[in-house]
Structures are given as structure tokens and as C-alpha cells.
Amino acid sequence: MATNYFRFNVFVLSLIVTFIFVSTIFVSSFQYRVGGKIGWIKPIGNESETYNEWAARNRFRIGDTLYFKYKGDSVLEVTVANYLNCNTTSPISKYENGETVYKFSHSGFYYFISGHKDKCKSGQRIIIRVVHDSEISSPAYAPEISPAPSVGGGGDDGDGWDSDFLGPPAINSTTALSVFSYFVTALGGIMVFFYLLM
């Protein structure tokens, strides 16, 4: 009897450790690549969508990260006023290393622009809305997506800007939570099954 009790406790402890490990994988955070394969560059006019249209398609949460890849440029986090005016003189933070990973620390709006004013004015800027988990489940939360501009017709016209211009449809936090909930349900079923066997 004591052996079965010990085996059960070891089994439960191993399930708890597995649960913690898997939950950190699924719920921790996700990285979104700004600009997709081509990275953070000045738009040339035949993109299938703008940076902001791409941002509106995704649900960003606290802990998620943006990955900016660029050459001969920089990424500036700015205020809304500096975003609207493409003011590069007083950023909140400035990144110039060519591969920037920016982590969201709170919900709200984040504004990013190119470090070159002319590139910003040409559309190399993005507004990110980071939502709190409570907002995601609210029926009032429904991001509005503007239709893509009909400039250049999308696709790859030989210039390297393909229809995947602003990032792959990366797995978002909502999808991960669904997968995680299925995992927890299955794990609970396995625990009940083994408990009944003992």
C-alpha cells in the first residue's frame, strides 16, 4: 500500500513539473518579425499591406516581442506626437544594432519609427496595441483591419517584396492559449486514468 502511495506521489510530482515546463513554453511569449522576410525597411509602394495593417491583424500581449531586422537604419520608440510628426530628435529609446528585439512590458500603445525622417514619412512607422489578457476575452475587443491598398497588386514583382511583406501570420497568444487548454485537459484525463489504475 505504501509503495502505491509513493508511486502515485512521484507520478503527480512528475506531472506537475511537466505542466510547469509546458506552460512556460505555450504561455510565455511570442516573437513577431516586423517586415517579414525583408525586415524593417522603407516601403516602396507595392506592398500588400502597411506596417499598421499588419499590426492590426495580430494580437500583442505583455511579454511578446517584436523583432526588427534592418541595415543602415535604426528603430526609435517615440511618443504619439513624435510618431505623427516623424520627429526623430527625442525618442523614448533608440536601437541601432541591426537586429532589435523589443519586449512589451505593459498594455497600451507603442509607437515606432525609422531613425531617418524621410523613411518615416514614406511609411516606415508602426503603432502596436498591446492588450491585457482581460481585453482579449472581452466581446468589445475586435481589432479593426483596414483593407490592403491596391498598389502594385501584391505578389513578388522581382523586387523581393512578396505578399508575405509584413511578417508571417505568426502564432499569436490566443492560439497558444487554446493549445495550452487542450494540453491541460488531456493532462487531467491522464492523471484520472492513472489514479483509477492504482
From TrEMBL:
Question: Where does it localize?
Answer: Cell membrane
- State a single Gene Ontology molecular function: electron transfer activity
Q: Where are the transmembrane segments?
A: 6-27, 179-197
Is Repeat one of the keywords UniProt gives this record? no
Its keywords, alphabetically, are:
Cell membrane, Disulfide bond, Glycoprotein, GPI-anchor, Lipoprotein, Membrane, Signal, Transmembrane, Transmembrane helix
How would you describe this protein's topology in the membrane?
Lipid-anchor; GPI-anchor
Q: Which residues form the Phytocyanin domain?
A: 30-132
- Which GO terms of the cellular component aspect does the record hold? plasma membrane; side of membrane
Q: Can you tell me which family this protein belongs to?
A: Belongs to the early nodulin-like (ENODL) family.
What PANTHER family does UniProt report for this protein, alphabetically?
BLUE COPPER PROTEIN (PTHR33021), OS01G0272700 PROTEIN (PTHR33021:SF14)
Name of the protein: Phytocyanin domain-containing protein
Source species of the chain: Capsicum annuum
